[in-house]
Amino acid sequence: MLNICLLGCGGGMPMPFRNLSSTLFEYKGRKILLDCGEGTQVSIRMISWGFKSIDVIVISHTHGDHIVGLPGLLSTIGNSGRVDDLTIIGPKGIKEVVENLLIIAKYLPYKINILENEEEINLKLNKEKGLEVNDKEWDLKINSIECDHSSPCLGYNFYIKRDRKFNVEKAIKNNVPKLLWNKLQKENSVEFEGKIYNPNMVLGDSRRGIKVSFITDSRPVENMAEFIKESDLFICEGTYGDDKDIEKAIKNKHMTFRESSNLAEKGNVKKLLLTHFSPAMIDPKEYLENIEFPNYIIGEDRLKLSIKFEEENN
User: Fold this and answer.
1) What distance, in Å, lies between the first and last C-alpha atoms of the chain?
2) Residue 143 φ then ψ, to 5°
3) Which UniProt keywords apply (predicted)?
4) How do residues 103-161 score in pLDDT, each as one tens digit?
5) For residues 32 and 141, what is the distance between their CA atoms, to the nearest angstrom?
6) Nearest alpha-carbon partner for 220 in 247, 252, 251, 260
7) Which residues touch 126 (CB under 8 Å, ≥6 apart)?
8) Spatial distance between the Cα atoms of 243 and 60, rounded to a whole number of angstroms
9) Which residues are catalytic?
10) Residue ranges of the binding site for Zn(2+)
11) What is the pLDDT of residue 231?
């Protein structure tokens, strides 16, 4: 199960009732943070999810409302007792920006690894050190897409792998020795008494995992619908609720509610979560009539969601 908390749903500048862009994922006790606007630390403290287990921070782009909360957060993570490496992922230019921000957080007790403009990143769950970048194996995969914004900006897909079920009947039918079952269940091939045993000899069919898509600060791009296709949750900016603000959206390279919902429809996603509201939009619910997708949620600070694996028979 993947737990999600929308820490802040504002864009541009913080408001008394709305923090800036930030979302937290929790999976098997480890965490990934998406963007880090002002107010991120406050919301994390309020939901009591903790700081030490934030292993990966993913940044969409380097505008202030998505990243200025980073130095303080990194310091707090250090003060929480973290000593294991932390990974920051972002678009072109993220390395320089993070290094400059760290001038006010120089002495951290852990190493920061920065990955810039990567199309695909594999993360493997280490029981002791959390989510780590791994070239070969993965429990969680991140893909990126270039967005259409006024600075280099990436949208992301997050895939959580679901392990195949062990099939006892299949293992017996294939004469697999019981002492090999555990290793094969972990999807490792094994050589035993001159014979190679592979995971397909004991495992059932592939099972659908969890897919979450995240697009913020962008105009709709032609290949976005395919990128977000059949996501369990599509987290998308809805900077402007009013259709009359379409010219502002085009000029500032953002989306209206109608554009975001049309994108969700084209991508055949299961659920749309709208966020990143303009400071001028006091109550997003005034513009619900402009949403052309049935299964939507209007974001609020500290809104929590959970996504479970689909129940399957195999």
Assistant:
1) 18
2) -115, 150
3) Endonuclease, Hydrolase, Metal-binding, Nuclease, tRNA processing, Zinc
4) 998 899 999 999 999 999 999 999 888 999 988 789 999 999 999 999 999 999 999 99
5) 12
6) 260
7) 132
8) 25
9) 65
10) 61, 63, 65-66, 149, 217, 276
11) 98
Show binding-site residues.
61, 63, 65-66, 149, 217, 276
pLDDT the model gives residue 185 = 87
Secondary structure (3-state) at 54: strand
DSSP designation for 145: E
Residue ranges and CATH numbers for the domains of the chain are 2-162+207-307 (3.60.15.10), 168-201 (no CATH)
Q: What predicted TM-score, i.e. pTM, was given to this entire model?
A: 0.92
User: What are the structure tokens assigned to 224, written together?
Assistant: 């976005």
Written as six digits, the tokens of 15 are: 């408001």
Radius of gyration of the chain (CA): 21
**314 Cβ contact partners less than 8 Å away, ≥ 6 residues apart:** 165, 204, 205, 207
Residues constituting the chain:
314
Longest dimension (CA), the chain: 73
What percent of the chain clears pLDDT 70, i.e. is strictly above it?
Answer: 99
Q: What percent of the chain has pLDDT over 90?
A: 86
59 contacts: CB under 8 Å, gap ≥ 6: 35, 36, 66, 67, 70, 88, 89, 90, 91, 94
Place of tokens 């079952």: 181
Tokens linked to 94: 């993220």
The pair of three-digit structure tokens given for residue 295, joined into one six-digit string: 């299964």
